[in-house]
Amino acid sequence: xxxxxxxxxxFTIFNxxxxxxxxxxxxxxxxxxxxxxxxxxxxxxxxxxxSVSIExxxxxxTSNITLHAKSLEIPNxxxxxxxxxxNEVFHKDTISDEEKxxxxxxxxxxxxxxxxxxxxxxxxxGTFTDSRTGFYIEKFESLHKSEGxxxxxxxxxTSARETFPCFDEPHLKxxxxxxxxxxxxxxxxxxxxxxxxLYLGGDRYQDVYKETPPMxxxxxxxxxxxxxxxxxxxxxxxxxxxxxTEDSTDFVLTEAANVLDAMEKYTGIKYLLDKLDIVGVVNKxxxxxxxGLITFDEQYVICPDNNTRWAxxxxxxxxxxxxxxxxxxxxxxLKSWHYMxxxxxxxxxxxxxIAAELRSSWRLDEQYVVEEFQRSLREDLLPxxxxxxxxxxxxxxxxxxxxxxxxxxxxxxxTKHILTESVFQNGLRLYLNTYKLRVTEPKNLYDCYLDxxxxxxxxxxxxxxxxHTILSNWAKxxxxxxxxxxxxxxxxxxxxxxQVNDLSGDSEDNIWYIPLTYTFQNRMNFESTVTDLWMTNKxxxxxxxxxxxxxxVNKHATGYYRVAYDNExxxxxxxxxxxxxxxxxxxxxxxQLIDDAFFFFIRDKLDTDIFLDFTSYLAKEQDYIPIxxxxxxxxxxxxxxxxxxxxxxxxIVKGYLITLLKASLDGVGLYAREYDTHMDKLKREEIMKMxxxxxxxxxxxxxxxMLTEWKATGKPLRNYDMxxxxxxxxxxxTVQLWNFLIQQYSLTDDDILRQKYLRALSCANSVVFKQxxxxxxxxxxxxxxxxxxxxxxxxxxxxxxxxxxAIIHYIKDNQLDDRYYSLFRDSKERYLLMPSEIGKxxxxxxxxxxxRLCVLFVTDEENNEKAVRKLVEGFPKYL
Length: 879
Prior knowledge:
Layout: H1 4-13, E1 31-42, E2 47-58, E3 62-68, E4 72-73, E5 79-83, E6 91-97, E7 102-111, E8 116-127, E9 134-141, E10 147-154, E11 175-182, E12 187-190, E13 194-201, E14 204-209, E15 222-225, E16 228-229, E17 236-240, H2 246-267, E18 276-281, E19 287-288, E20 293-297, H3 309-324, E21 333-334, H4 340-358, H5 364-379, H6 401-419, H7 421-435, E22 439-440, H8 442-455, H9 467-475, E23 481-487, E24 493-500, E25 514-516, E26 518-520, E27 533-535, E28 539-543, E29 551-553, E30 562-565, H10 567-577, H11 587-602, H12 608-615, H13 624-638, H14 648-665, H15 678-693, H16 697-713, H17 722-731, H18 735-747, H19 751-761, H20 767-777, H21 786-799, H22 803-813, H23 818-821, E31 832-835, H24 836-840, H25 844-852, E32 855-858, H26 864-874
Parallel strand pairs: 1-11, 17-18, 18-20, 21-22, 23-30, 31-32
Antiparallel strand pairs: 1-2, 2-8, 3-7, 4-8, 5-8, 6-7, 9-10, 10-15, 11-14, 12-15, 13-14, 16-17, 19-20, 23-24, 24-28, 25-27, 26-29
């Protein structure tokens, strides 16, 4: 499930008691469910009625049935238990344990071990939630400004219990028959195909859905709405708001079918269900992989051609992620939430690598390194991180997304390179075939890898080590190692040492089993990524006999570790990158050298002169992958608020960066060309976004010219880079152009265009237009939606210098009361993220103001300010 922010909100902000994976929080193992029949009927816009019939088997003799139920009104007389012969088993009481969400039915006589019973709970009532979990309603503007709605479920990890009484743990799989009662003006959907519709009288219709395969409760899905299906492509249909044209959904409809086919071929297992619906939901965060009924924020379903290339690419990768879950998570499911990475790690891996098979020219396998691998390295820092095999210490703490998604996928990718592609793929095929419709834990996966290693005669790849030991070492260790490389330039020996990456310096050293790969300038070989040397001790020395040129460690960035070289090797690498042969080092390795250099420079582990000499090679770099890595690192170091300062010191920094980036832009030019490739467009988008952010005059002038032409001719901008140019224009617009874009925002019903216009308006940098923007956001009478207001403030903070303080001053100066704060409260999960460093500089009163606007302060690099100072001092010699 693509919901990094969602996990933060569920388990941090609301302090929700989810699951404490200690024995007393597990259900008793006295019964297990076999089949559910779930019937739901919305009654009003706030509540619904439900019935559930659960066929269950007694695993031991027991005098009670314990299952989950939360916030449901269950009449005591609605509970019936019968055996297979129709004999009733009477109950004498029920107990609700609100801490554990247990609903305990006390029986008058015991259930007999091995026998099957049917538990029926009729006419209970529930309330639609307001947290976008469980069963909830989302309203939207439909055709001709009419009101539309979608009633839907989102159960991962433990919200099924909020909608129907159930055994809400992932290992307790059962089949489901779903009945949804709706009006004639609505349609419904569930995991499996519709079997029949029964007329119940009045304006009530009951849709009956085919029984599902055995699956976990968190994957059950229901929808009742007045939305519209697109045409069907194989097993796939899209369900979207009626106003969106077929053209807007063609990309996802086509590519989703291709991804489904590619996953079938890769796994060797056909998609198990009869259909796969993909639903675009207004205001949803991320996506949810419900088996046969994937739900998304609609921006990942509605993907018109005039979107940015990044947005189009994200439509492909996010859909690939959720479709991969149909195998990894749905067909084969984690045994407990300790092992969330078995679901999310593989889905994150395949969202790039299966998509790369479909769009090879997009280089998604290489983009993975700068998007996921490097992100994990930046965030998986001790002491504030945890292992992939998660240890629950409190009921409200849940695995961090950076670990179960990004880190897990990097370890999975590393495993592929340890084992080779053949062993990896065949191991996964064995895993899926062996455990389909069952639950697993990591050792089951490792067993399958090991089985194929033996079959293919490749046990030597492990260097005499135990595979379970290697992979458990990575799954159970927090953080990652830094490998220091010291060369002995007279003998050619190379000493490798490992240390834990701990910002606090307090952690005990851990020893990782590190698969080292390396190559030399004079014996260059980037083809093979199998392990050259297993590092199982603190230090190991390799007698390479090669003192010449450079050594490069971690070929294609396949190992989950950083590399710190001695100064001489950094100089040799720098000299080579400044030569005409620099592209002989693969783009992903150039990107990783850049990211490692930034990392060590920030922490005073790399001299400023060496760092600047090294990164200055980027003036000749034309490849998107290393450029993207550089831009991301710049973004992090400067936080893009500091870099917008107008004083002389930061003017030096901006001047240097503009010069460097313009040189990188030369290969694709400033303007879109008919023959641009996807990578050309991505590169231009990223560089121009940074140049415009830096206030480059040429960028701003072009934006003003394009907006002026639109105003004069009435022909709107619809090219994919429209938002970038509008943002540039809004940095220093005329009053007429500002008012014109406000007008366009107010007139359009297209939510995607409204987002683009609003983000562009948030780029205002002058005091006058900052005030105009904030006045527009806080206007009680305009037609802006709550989530748009929150998104607008988020863009304002990102795009303007001192944006957070400008918001605070505006609220204070205008004495805004609770009416204005209430404008943001319906945005629910639309949170305004700010770096924690901003929060530290605010007074308690100012922090309270921002908190009322749904602000989350997130951890960032505390060394950024120091790094900026060093760069300010070092840049002049490179101008």
